[in-house]
Amino acid sequence: MSSLPGSFAGLGRHFHRPIYFSLVTITTLWTMSLLTAAIQDGGITPLELVLLILYAILMLWINASFWTAALGFVRLLRHQNDADTFGEAAPASPDESDGPFKTALVMPVYNEDPERVFAGLRAMYQSLVETGRHQGFEIFILSDTRDPDTWVREEWEWRRWAQELGHPARIFYRNRVENTARKSGNLAEFCRRWGGRYRYMIVLDADSIMCGTTLVEMVRRMEADRRLALIQVPPVPVNRSSLFARMLQFAGSLYGRMFAAGLAYWQQDTANFWGHNAIIRVRPFAQHCGLPQLPGREPFGGDILSHDFVEAALLARAGWKVRLADDLGGSYEEIPPTLIDYAKRDRRWCQGNLQHTRLILARHFKSLSRIHFAMGVMSYLASPLWLLFLIATGVEAYFRSLTVPVYFFGNNVLPVWPESYAVEMATVLWVTLTMLFLPKLLALILLAVKRDLAPRFGGLARATISVVIESLLSVLLAPVLMLFQSKFVAAILLRTTVGWPTQERGDHQTGFAEAFGAHAVHTLIAAVVGVVTYVYVPDFFWWFTPVLAGLALSIPVSMITSRTSLGLLARRAGLFLTPAESDEPRVLRLLDDNLAASQPTPQTTGRDLWSWAVVEPSAYALHASLLPDENPSRRRRHALEGIIFKLQDEGPQSLNTAEKRALLSHRDGLYELHTQLWAGAEPPVSVQRLN
Amino acid sequence: MGARIMPASIPDSESLSSGPSVAGLDPSDWQRAERRVSDYLRAMGISDPQEIERLLDQVRQRAAIRAAAAPLEDPVEAAIEEAHSLLDQWLIAELGLEGDADRLCAARAAVLNGAVPGWSARWAGFASDSLAPAILAAHLPATPEPAPLNMEPNRIDLLFHRLGHRFLASICRVLCRSSLGGGSPGVRS
């Protein structure tokens, strides 16, 4: 029988969503009433109506975010022990009452740096071994890599690690022949071929790191609730050194936990899947999460790009629970090191999220899943809406500046002074800014209250300085991101598809040429808009200066924030310090060690790796052994022969990536090339053997 | 495992050039082929000159049979193919792998990657003990045994897509007095 407080707590859960959505709705209506009071001067013009509608949508978005953070703040304030949130979960024994089972750590990769991929996986495995529970886990590298050199390097790394671990085999690798449906297709193919072997799979990204105790705890929680299909553990950004990345890491660590706590509060059993650092019950996933193609052409039709939201919605639709484990630490990811890389990542995500507009009203989804879709769409649509709002505000200000005040009209003898709405407008602005910046203040209050937490962020004083600098830089970066995202949205609405570019994950710095190429337009826009507003609407110009400053300074800001020297300098000064930096978790230290100890690529004496894998007998044999057994067709054989002739006549540089990959993809073509190269006029230059 | 004969010296290309000729082949062609096969065997990790000599001899015999059946377009390529084939045949015989291409490739990878000590002596016929257990033990499976699950695309009914179809169908019915006929609404891939 449950205790009385427990019953109340259970009862209280039913009020979480009403509380949250009521707060969001009431605050939005209130802020709208403020703006209405400020602009309704003898009725509302069409332009003012547009302003009001845009403001309502944007405030709804801001309020949803604000109340998530505020409720998260209250939850964390009431939470007595922060150990779980920041540290590693307590080791727990998975319940194996109904027999042993296996959990797969699956890492889909696509042209990622193999050295980093394997160093990360090794760190996780080492961390698992330290828990003593590693027997229940197997690691699967699900490669969709198309680049031939990266493919060969992945195989080399897999073999080296598999040999070290020996039998029984726990590390598996496969490269998909066709990367149909991208990442979701990669996972689906894994489920179709090996899903029956595992009860759970923990999905990782190429830059994911999770500590062993967290992995074990995730399994334990899944075992404790048989209706639970997915647990998402919020990843904390780590490991980058540039000023830009360290700023984001700080923000992610300090505010992110508050947002995660707030999300868990109102999402409850219909939370979302963020694509990685999550555990999934394999059978219901296979049963309910096979994704259809959306009707029509890309960018809104075709493969579902941002599959994670849809998979969570499909699980929820089938009656399964999806939870966000905001109280669980030991989950990390790496983020883009520069503003430009960040924008490039946004470009990829933008299309996937906008595609969800078609799913918001699809039948049978739960209401909360629809809200997840809408929030995903809004995370990108907010930028063009802000842009429209700013333009509409400028136009409105211009028209108002044209109005000549009339002091004497009718039979009035005394002048009638025009009403000023400066106070109302200022109130609207301050309320909006408060909603945007209050979560940062709440996070600092949390540090002040929880004394043991502050030192992990460099102390309260340094954390406060960091928050101030981060806020100022955010003000400068926000207009740039607004224009980037607006451009992406426009490009997608104009039916331009995105590719599937590899992410630039490692630290690197933005040079002038790159910054100029990316931000010259922003600077130009700032100059033109600045002159126009200064000349025609000078009052508006001064309100507009924060936005203009961000755009005008985008080139130097983009370059300066990409500097690792500044990031490291800030770290030495104790600024933007995160718990993962001040007390580096064991699994991250293991990653560092593995990267330092990683072996160089084989000495191929000038050959590309793919070419080495064709010529060198041991590398050739390894690669051939990892290819699927297929019946050679005449058509393919002729195609391969054509590529081989091209290689022989025009040299390796004449082949493009697809042709190199074609040569490496089939045993018959590989054999043909291997023997022909060894039969050439000159013997292949000596190359290092694999072992 | 049979006794391993340690090499006195590694035969170089020059010492091989005086080897016996092959019927049906120009001696200079065969010398070129022999030198290349010798390089190939060394690239496989075989350093014992006697093993190389023995294997070359077997390749020579196979090339002669092949040349007797049909003129060789490229003797060097034919010899390399025969060396490759010789290894595969030995592995098939050693492991009893008739018709199993995956296991043959795995075994080839295991021996060439140096995971089976003494494999070249056994291949060349200098060792009598079977290496089958060692080769099988050295095999590292890249994937586990298949354990398939059914995963079919789920249906997602897009509201406007469905309404659009119905709307068009209604218009067609009104205007053309005929149905669009069985157009399936929603999404199914």
UniProtKB/TrEMBL annotation, chain A:
<feature type="transmembrane region" description="Helical">
    <location>
        <begin position="543"/>
        <end position="562"/>
    </location>
</feature>
<dbReference type="GO" id="GO:0016758">
    <property type="term" value="F:hexosyltransferase activity"/>
</dbReference>
<feature type="transmembrane region" description="Helical">
    <location>
        <begin position="20"/>
        <end position="40"/>
    </location>
</feature>
<keyword id="KW-0472">Membrane</keyword>
<feature type="transmembrane region" description="Helical">
    <location>
        <begin position="515"/>
        <end position="537"/>
    </location>
</feature>
<feature type="transmembrane region" description="Helical">
    <location>
        <begin position="429"/>
        <end position="449"/>
    </location>
</feature>
<comment type="pathway">
    <text>Glycan metabolism; osmoregulated periplasmic glucan (OPG) biosynthesis.</text>
</comment>
<feature type="transmembrane region" description="Helical">
    <location>
        <begin position="373"/>
        <end position="392"/>
    </location>
</feature>
<comment type="similarity">
    <text>Belongs to the glycosyltransferase 2 family. OpgH subfamily.</text>
</comment>
<keyword id="KW-0812">Transmembrane</keyword>
<dbReference type="InterPro" id="IPR050321">
    <property type="entry name" value="Glycosyltr_2/OpgH_subfam"/>
</dbReference>
<dbReference type="InterPro" id="IPR001173">
    <property type="entry name" value="Glyco_trans_2-like"/>
</dbReference>
<feature type="domain" description="Glycosyltransferase 2-like">
    <location>
        <begin position="202"/>
        <end position="395"/>
    </location>
</feature>
<dbReference type="Pfam" id="PF13632">
    <property type="entry name" value="Glyco_trans_2_3"/>
</dbReference>
<feature type="transmembrane region" description="Helical">
    <location>
        <begin position="469"/>
        <end position="494"/>
    </location>
</feature>
<dbReference type="GO" id="GO:0005886">
    <property type="term" value="C:plasma membrane"/>
</dbReference>
<keyword id="KW-1003">Cell membrane</keyword>
<keyword id="KW-0997">Cell inner membrane</keyword>
<protein>
    <recommendedName>
        <fullName>Glucans biosynthesis glucosyltransferase H</fullName>
    </recommendedName>
</protein>
<keyword id="KW-1133">Transmembrane helix</keyword>
<keyword id="KW-0808">Transferase</keyword>
<feature type="transmembrane region" description="Helical">
    <location>
        <begin position="52"/>
        <end position="74"/>
    </location>
</feature>
Automatic annotation (TrEMBL), chain B:
<feature type="region of interest" description="Disordered">
    <location>
        <begin position="1"/>
        <end position="29"/>
    </location>
</feature>
<protein>
    <submittedName>
        <fullName>Uncharacterized protein</fullName>
    </submittedName>
</protein>
